[in-house]
Amino acid sequence: MEIPSIDDQIAVTDRMIEDRPDLSNPLELHKKILQAQRQVRESPKKGTDVDWDDKSIIDDLQRKAVRSGQPIASFLDPSIFDSKALLHTIGQVIGALIEKGVKEDWPKKFLDEVKRGETNILDLVGAAMKGDAEYFKRYGERFEVSPALILFIINSSIQPCLEEIAKRVDPSFLERWWKAPCPICGRRPMVAKLRARKRHLTCTLCGAVYLADLFLCVNCGNVDPYTLKFLAPEGHSEFRVDFCEKCKHYLKVIDENRLKSPIPRGLEDIMTIDLDLMAKRAGLIRA
Description:
By secondary structure, the chain is an alpha+beta fold. It has 2 domains: 6-168, no CATH class; 171-281, Alpha-Beta Complex (FdhE-like fold). 48% of the residues lie in helices and 10% in strands. It contains 12 helices and 6 strands. Strands 3-2-1-6-5-4 form a 6-stranded mixed beta sheet. Helix 1 (6-19) runs antiparallel to helix 2 (24-36) and helix 5 (83-99) packs antiparallel against helix 6.
């Protein structure tokens, strides 16, 4: 999986803003996050002390993931991350959020605590890689803000590293994974792509694209085809929403064979926001 340069990604995002002015707000935020990540993205080690050119490191992580059935991120020690690089990126991401309208009181307080060491930055990273919802729930309650927003800030700081791992793993590892959570970072997918009658789940955090059963609820694991349904927007056969009648969660699906023009890598979730609105009207739940 090749990752376009940051300048190429920004240029593509600018074109999408011109093509879809109705999506300018989320696209502009995406662009600002890319700019906030520039220093780490352009670093060969992606904000860590790891030489990712050493193939034995990726091979070892893959073996551990296959043996355990756990994503690669669960075997990453937070201490591999450069605290100064993390702090820089977190500050830049917070600045981007404030520019886009987030009230600055709590983000600045949060950043000050991290700078002073009152909140351990590597503990935050470790909790993010483990997907520890309770950890971020406590922070959300403390700062009176959505835990998802704090998690977003931390995820943005480690995203370049996770993308680098996803880029370097063996394609056969992704093809054999066959589970709903991402094999790299463990996140549950929001988007899938159909290619040649196969469903490829697409991670919006690390960018991994991996095979999964056509009849599988990515939230609860339901495989009963009689309770797995779909909705399709009128006049757009290239898109649909797969949903589970048991848990009411949904997955956005892009049929690449029917797309008039390709959706740029990393923008799949943003460019299908209309499907989220359709799903919400139907009473469905986003993961």
